[in-house]
Design a protein that fits this description.
This protein has helices at about 5-20, 20-30, 35-55, 65-85, 85-90, 100-110, 125-140, 140-150, 160-165, 180-200, 205-220, 235-250, 255-260, 265-270, 270-295, 300-315, 330-340, 355-375, 390-415, 420-430, 450-465, 470, 475-480; strands at about 380-385, 385. The N and C termini lie close together (about 10 Å). It is mainly alpha-helical.
Length: about 475
């Protein structure tokens, strides 16, 4: 393992991250909200630490190996979330303990959207901006941004890209060069953010709210500048815009890229994962709206808009709210929460296990049924017309089993801290799926949980963001053997 090259990259990335303190500084100056010092201090501290880590090894140039890529990815998320917590911890509004500041920072960067803060409407504008900005940066993955920049510094980025990109198949590149791939993803990401922000503004949001909510919508984060989330605006137009962009952000960005390059929407319609994604969202939406109407929870118009909004928000793991879905009748709270385990498509900013994995598990289940009937038949699992290698199927099942094992393991720990069952399982589920809002005592915020539970949930957020194996790999002795 190349410690020097790891330190060099971490130092560079920390110095780059320090620049993200500048926009909140500008916002603080514009609104004169009294929060200039925390961000200036954070900027100076992170820049200095990054420089101190980078300077001694600045001339070291070695090839980055796969193992180094995994270490850098995990280390940077840990260091980044720690750095991101500095302004929140130093600030006097809100006044936060270290665990709360770290929880909020990590929740933002992993686009989980679980918050420990109440009274969000009364927070300074620079803090509100910063929370939203954390989600936007985390949405596409700071590492992917780094992949676009590091080659200019003489460092290849393929290993980082493999460790960060969500989904079971990680070797597909949109363009021949990985740098161009990362740039293409960010151009699409920036374009969607701009369109979403303009849409919100035209629908009636202030410029500040439009920009900040576009950050968390495209990142599928769910942080808001108001306690009532999107429900604060009480606008059907805003809700419809949010639905469209949440749905788009839950789609594989590779499809956005190819659709844009080929100038055709048929790229989406031909993709098996997109078909299954649309089927799940559409099917659950119909069930939800039907139950809301049958139980007379809402009138028909509100049932359609509220039902559709909450389904898309929860299914894509965004976590925005216009209604209190935790108190909806019958099976709906449980149904919506379970759908979050599916999450967005691979290669999207969504959380969860990813649609492609659930689709492959479903197809593998069907294959086993057919094998019982025809024991000697060779029955391939196909996505569209292409057979899926058994190695990929095995990897998907391995991921699913470890994902559920870790879910149960963390659930038991939370129960041991004294939480009730509904709060415990929904908190773990909401964090490992990077969803945000849960049920029970975490339906609105996580501020009342004990410190042990918060640390466990921080681990869950990181585990979900790094798709389990990238993080757990570092806990295996074999990984550290030379």
């Amino acid at each position: 393992m190349h410690i020097s090259i790891i330190c060099r990259i971490l130092g560079i990335l920390l110095m780059l991250f320090s620049i993200t303190m500048l926009p909140p500084i500008v916002v603080s100056l514009i609104y004169d909200d009294g929060q200039l010092t925390p961000f200036v201090d954070a900027f100076g501290l992170i820049l200095c630490i990054g420089a101190l880590v980078w300077f001694p090894v600045r001339n070291k140039k070695e090839d980055l190996r796969v193992r180094d890529g995994f270490v850098i990815t995990v280390l940077f998320w840990l260091v980044l979330s720690l750095s991101g917590s500095i302004p929140l911890y130093v600030s006097d509004n809100p006044s936060m303990s270290f665990v709360d500041a770290y929880f909020e920072s990590l929740s933002g960067l992993t686009t989980t959207g679980a918050t420990v803060i109440t009274g969000i409407d009364d927070l300074p504008q620079s803090i509100l901006w910063y929370r939203q900005q954390l989600q936007w940066l985390g949405g596409m993955g700071i590492i992917v941004l780094a992949v676009a920049i590091l080659p200019m510094l003489g460092i290849g980025g393929m290993q980082l890209y493999r460790a960060e990109t969500p989904g079971p198949v990680k070797d597909n590149k949109l363009t021949p060069r990985i740098t161009e791939t990362a740039k293409a993803l960010w151009y699409i990401y920036l374009g969607l953010t701009t369109l979403c922000g303009i849409g919100y503004w035209l629908a009636g949001m202030s410029v500040f709210d439009a920009i900040t909510h576009s950050f968390s919508t495209i990142a599928i984060g769910g942080f808001s500048t108001h306690d009532d989330s999107i429900g604060y605006f009480d606008s059907t137009a805003i809700e419809l815009i949010a639905i469209v962009f949440m749905f788009l952000s839950g789609i594989n960005y590779a499809l956005h890229f190819f659709s844009w390059r080929q100038r055709s929407i048929f790229v989406y319609l031909k993709d098996p994962e997109f078909q299954f994604y649309a089927l799940v969202v559409g099917g659950v939406s119909i069930i939800t709206v039907s139950v809301l109407l049958a139980t007379e929870t809402y009138e028909i118009t509100e049932a359609i808009t509220s039902g559709l909004f909450e389904v898309v928000s929860i299914a894509t793991t965004t976590g925005f709210a216009t209604a209190d879905f935790a108190n909806w009748p019958l099976v709906l709270p449980f149904l919506l929460f379970v759908v979050a385990f599916i999450g967005g498509c691979a290669g999207s900013t969504g959380g969860g296990m990813k649609v492609i994995r659930i689709l492959l598990i479903y197809k593998q289940g069907l294959r086993e049924v057919k094998r019982l009937i025809h024991p000697n038949a060779i029955i391939p699992v196909k996505l569209g017309r292409k057979p899926v290698p058994d190695r990929v199927i095995e990897a998907v099942w391995g991921f699913f089993s470890v994902y559920m094992f870790m879910f149960v393991f963390m659930l038991i720990i939370l129960l041991a801290t004294g939480l009730d069952q509904v709060t415990a399982w929904s908190a773990v589920g909401a964090c490992i799926n990077n969803l945000g809002p849960g049920l029970g005592d975490v339906a609105y915020h996580y501020g009342d949980l004990n410190s042990t539970a918060k640390w466990v949930l921080c681990f869950a957020m990181l585990l979900g963001r790094l798709e389990v194996f990238t993080l757990l790999l570092l806990f295996t002795p074999a990984f550290w053997r030379h």
